[in-house]
Amino acid sequence: MNRLIKRLIEVTSDKNFMNFIEIVEVIVSKLLSLLMVLVIFATLADLTIFIVKEILSPAEGTFSQALFKTFGLFLNVLIALEILENITGYLKKHVLQVELVIVTSLIAIARKIIILDLKVTEGIEIIGLGIAILSLSISYFIIRTNNSRKEH
Questions:
Q1: What is the spatial distance between Cα 15 and Cα 9, in angstroms, rounded to a whole number?
Q2: How far is 72 from 67, CA to CA, in rounded Å?
Q3: What does DSSP assign to residue 122?
Q4: Do 85 and 33 meet the contact criterion of CB atoms below 8 Å apart?
Q5: Euclidean distance between the first and final Cα of the chain, in Å?
Q6: 100 with 82: CB under 8 angstroms?
Q7: C-beta pairs of 92-95 under 8 Å, 24+ apart in sequence
Q8: 60: phi > 0 → left, psi -120 to 50 → alpha, else beta; which?
């Protein structure tokens, strides 16, 4: 009976529990990586189909709208690639790379601004996007400055 209790205590120790959690994190990260690859290919297919339909045979007077949507779809692919980079970076170092997350967020906001329809967008939304860009830019600058100090 004492052996069983000792074994149970050993199995439920903090070290063993943390090892289990790390294994779960790695499995989840690998699954997320595979799913993100699928998302990237689906987004790439969507972009290809859109370009073939809209750009190569545009309806009269809709080229500029198609161009903005094309830019948005390109940025979708870039955002998906950045998210994949975040996941694989985590798998390599087991640390969330905040700089990559901020860059991904900046790309996402840039995409939002590029495809923004100013006719239906309220001023408060534009102010919010501006504040988000300013906040993320300041955060990026602080983290980048801090990282370059560590490297030197």
A1: 11
A2: 9
A3: -
A4: no
A5: 57
A6: yes
A7: 94/22, 94/25
A8: beta
Question: What is the block-wise mean pLDDT of the chain (152 residues), using blocks of 10 residues?
Answer: 77 82 91 95 92 76 74 88 89 83 90 82 90 94 87 70
Name residue 125's amino acid: E
Tell me the residue type at 55.
Answer: I
In order of 92, 107, 120, 132, the CA distances from 125 in angstroms are: 38, 17, 10, 10
Record the tokens describing residue 90, joined without a space. 């985590």
The model carries a pTM of 0.72
DSSP conformational letter for 13: S
In whole angstroms, what is the distance from residue 25 CA to residue 20 CA? 9
Q: Can you give the pLDDT at residue 20?
A: 87
Residue 12, judged by CB atoms within 10 A of its CB (0-12, 13-18, 19+), counts as exposed
Structure tokens at 147: 């990282």
Alpha helices in 13-122 (DSSP H): 14-50, 63-93, 98-114
Predicted local confidence at residue 58, as pLDDT:
67
